[in-house]
Amino acid sequence: MQGWAFCAILISFCRTERTYVKGLAELVDLYIKPGAASVNMLSGVGSNKDTVVPAAERKIVFNGLDALFSFHKDNFLPALEVAAAPMMKPAAVLQEADSDGQLSLNVVKAVASMFIKHAAFMRMYSSYIKYVSRFRSFIQSHANSFFSQQLRQLSTAR
To answer: What structural domains and CATH numbers belong to the chain?
Structure first.
């Protein structure tokens, strides 16, 4: 693969990862944190253990999303950006710097190494995927409750 083609793919991959991290951050801020809020804090009534969305239901709906967000934000995205940095140059500069293809090869190796280093963390997705059917069932049975309320609050805030 020519260096410029690899660079275009790498730029797209970095942008996609940034967008993914941003989307996870929105899920955490709009749903996970408000769902874990103490009912006592909101209404002044109830025990400190009572939350807007009970812990068992949060586990079904948000199982591991906060950990995925932390992993991607604090580890995977920064490592990807460091590995990709040598290729993130203007086309003219990159063409000269990678005239022999060595720069592209080194970045490919760095990105591959980064994936290998973080492979164990990618197993978090197996747990997330395991709960998808439970999540779908839960959402179908609770479609007009907490989530609708959060979406209304979001639309009024804009």
So the answer is: 3-157 (1.20.900)
Cα–Cα distance between 116 and 21 in angstroms, integer? 20
Rounded Cα gap, residues 6 and 108, in angstroms: 9
Tens-place pLDDT, residues 72-95 = 999 999 999 999 999 888 888 888
Q: Could you tell me if 74 and 39 are in contact, meaning their C-beta atoms sit under 8 angstroms apart?
A: no
Residue 20: is its pLDDT beyond 80? yes
Q: pLDDT per residue over 120-136, tens digit each?
A: 888 888 777 777 777 77
What is the secondary structure of 11-54 as a DSSP string? HHHHHHHHHHHHHHHHHIIIIIHHHHSBHHHHHS-S-TT-BSS-
| Lookup: tokens for 147 | 């989530």
Q: How confident is the model at residue 150 (pLDDT cuts 50, 70, 90)?
A: low
C-alpha–C-alpha distance, residues 91 and 100, integer Å: 15
Please state, in angstroms and rounded to a whole number, the distance separating the CA atoms of residues 33 and 6.
39
Q: Mean pLDDT over residues 26-34, rounded?
A: 87
